[in-house]
Fold these 3 entries.
Entry 1:
Amino acid sequence: MTDASAEGRRAQATSGKALARSAGVVVGIRGLDFGLSFLVSVLLANRFGASGQLDAFFLARRTTVGFADTIRKLVGQIVLPPVLAAVDRGEAPSLRHLPRRMAWFFVVFAGVMLAGMLVPTVWAKLFAPGFRGEQQALTATMMRIMLPLLPLALVASLLAAVLQARRRYLLSEGTNLVQRALLVLVLALFVPPLGIIAGAWTMLIAGVVGFFILLAGAWSIVRPPPGHAPAEPPADVPETKGGGLAAAVVINVYFQATALLDFAFATTGGDGGVASLEYGSRLVSLVPGLVMSSLATVLTPELIRAVQQPDRVAAAAGIQRFQRIGVFAQAPVSVGMMLGAPLMVSALFGHGAFGPQAIASAAACTAGYAAAAIFLAPMSAITTSIYADPHASALRDLAIIAVIGTVVRVIVLAIAAPIWGAPGIAYGAAVATALTFVVAQIIAARRFHHFHMRAQLADLAQTFACAGIAAAAGFALLWLVPNPHKLFGELALLCALGALIVVVHFAAAVMLRVPEMAALRDIAMQILAKRRSRRK
């Protein structure tokens, strides 16, 4: 092995220690964003409670900001694999690395956005079939205000993909803090006299400000340095079977459609159903989602590299490793969220216009979505792997997952929503996500022939056993400690519950010899060895 090839491998491979450091940066930034998001939720709950106005705002935000998030994921999924390959080859990212059909996506996207701005009432009727009269008109007005966020999300996602490929997470993640801080400021000072419409305008203004901050900061990183020019034209990269615009659209539309289905069913109930689902999904996206999204941001480039390597055995092993990491990190957080949901909702929203019935409904929705997050983590690893796999077309397999997942979701929600309302929708989402994960796992095992399913099931069973032991310890704590009725008591018990579940989960993992604990131990030993060498 030559020195050049060894150096190239070291440049392309990321050690566990580097991954842990990058994940720590992302978790730290998103933790701050997590705190500001809590402030936003508390301010909205205090001002509007579980009212029809808040239902309209959340529905409008879901169909605009939610679509913007989907666009970011979609563009990132399309752009990241070729950009990663270009960066690894030492090339500067350029427009020629984008798929050829990307222009058609831009045209269709622009048409949909213009149609939404011209006839927002049609969108409101489509996504909120249960809204009527003034509530429907309010939803349409706020949709029109926030729709310009979509093109901003398109360009921002291109910049973020390049930053992610170069492992630059601070700028793209920190931009969200600015947007959230502006929203907190306006909600605290101006929304009470101006009303819920001010929240929609603030979402738009914060998005514009955040975009220009990202553009100004990322431009020097994204553009080639002055005088940088390859000595010879870069060689053409052969076309592969994986990826594709259609496949990316299918899987991202599926994930967005599942969320919109939940809220569409919620609009058929009474006032407060949409707000309960929004608070439940928001809390889960902020707490368990903080873990999953942070890991995804750091691990996705490494997962893509693992899948695209020529060694198919190593590729399958890499996919299974990332699945295990996702489940192992997600399980204790989701378990703690399920047990502590009543305490968390009561502490955050148990004052102002948010009454006891709304608290109970939001807590149940939080627990349901927290359960769904456990299965969403490994399923996302599968869909990302299928899309990035260069050895076979991704469209067929992803379409099967999307169609079956959507049908299962509709059937489960149609049964659960009329009987149990918003909590039934959240728990129905968990059941549907678990069933879809099983389908995705079967497809992945057939596609990646070197999957060791028995070993994988044994590892997942160990992780779920650790989570079960931690859940039993948390339940015992809640049973022994009387229910506090004051804010500081609720927060103290919530912190104790979270700490206990994490400690018991990791202790059980050590006893059961879960592979992820061995990896964490190796990282810790490397850090300790490095510190000892510095002292000497």
Entry 2:
Amino acid sequence: MTQEEPKTDSVILKVEDLKVFFPIVGRGILQRTIGYVRAVDEVSFEIFEGETLGLVGESGCGKTTVGRALMGAVEATGGSVKFTTRDGGELSLLDASKADWSIARQQMQLVFQDPFSSLNPRMTIYDIVGDPLRVNKLAGVREREERVAEMVRRVGLPPEVIRRYPHAFSGGQRQRIGIARALIMNPRLVIADEPVSALDVSVQAQILNLMQELRDQLNLSYLFISHDLSVVQHVSDRVAVMYVGQLVEVASSKSIFARPMHPYTQALLSSVPLPNPEIRSRGKALEGEVADPANPPGGCYFNPRCPFVQDICRTETPPLTEVEPGRFARCHFAGELELAGVAE
């Protein structure tokens, strides 16, 4: 197995040309649509069984919208999303029936960013974690209590806490409770949207280690959404880099950090703290503002900020091309530029 190959060849989520456009409505009585915000623009990727795919980019790049579209929280404008269930069935999520969505939402779960606002302060931990079982009528009262206590224990909390309320817990403990709620349905895929960004650094490491242990124990797959590349490096098998609604690079985590193939990826890597203060990043810091998704520049969306820009970059939009087996980049000069990675 090469470093670009996934752990298995079993694809559980296949996303093709996903688009999420939000209309811009003009003023006046008629309120006509005068344009669109291209929040997600022709995004394609796969998630394999048992792997973690990190989805990274600056704020506003569309990564959270991708996760929300996969769960049906926002309506996709176009594309295809195929999810393979545990019994081998395939669900087409963008045109799924209510019955299919019911199945999908049991096997696809979310871990939210904010552990403080994502838990209902009026509900006990038993009610919060066990509510999916109650709503889906999957367990009686006694079995539900046993399963909640067991799941709470799995995430590192004593079972007796299930009768307490969220205010009694720290941020890290609340995030453990959020993870327990996501896992109580025995999902196949967990979409984790910035799950540690609101936590202290020391607590972040504990939660990341917990998520990795649970992945291995329960054979989970993760879509791990984050703006922090140092976090993504720690947890991800593969990384997809987003810029202004588009994927600009997809590769194994090891390859991306050692040898990026897109200038934007290199710029993001230059912001990763290095453990040795004597080492200086060879990357170039980004200048200028992120392109407007409602009015993106012609050609490559990154061209106004790219230190390697050429005339073709301003006139022709590069496709996401497989530069090497398992490595994809959206750049006219992918594989030709000498881009700096980060030290191990």
Entry 3:
Amino acid sequence: MNEFELVAEVRTDVGKGASRRLRRDGKLPGVVYGTGKAVNMITLQHNAVMHNLEHEAFYSQILSLKMGDEIESVVLKDLQRHPYKRSVLHVDLLRIDANETLTMRIPLHYINEDKCFGVKNGGGVISHLMTDMDIVCLPKNLPEYIEVDMLEVNLNDTLHLSDLKLPEGVEIHSLLHGGDVAQPVASVQAPKVVASDEAEDAAAEEAAAEASEETAPQEGAKDNEN
């Protein structure tokens, strides 16, 4: 499992103007809150955060936040990106309590796709209907991702939420709130058949021949005209 550490400073200068000045200096404004402690406005190094964002696990794993001599466990709860530049404008970090469950969005990793029964035996194509999902668990049980095993999925079959094998202590958020256990996660379907150019040409020639026969004058008609 990846381990990520963020180094932050508490800031007292707040507001849009202060945030713009921080960004010009290569810094990133943020906030950390939760577990009943005071909300802290913080400053992080923009490049360090951008580097961590290249790792999928950074979005869903527990992070170490170092502020002075204190280290806290946090998770990334919100991220505001620039609308067109490759930069981040603001981050929200949530403190976690080891004894309290948390809700996190976790990526799905599809495995055994090349060995899938519906692909190997039926020539099917796999469709991913979900790429991530919200889960609920204690911090110690937080997985980096959820595996979706496609091995035994046959042609024209669908894998549902109820089919997923979850790590110990992990529950699906939607199912705890009355969600549909039959919600589709992935399916294997026959590929769409596209007519070849040769088949299209043959059909066009056949139609033209039939039209020609229908419009051609009969021999008797020619004799009557004479």
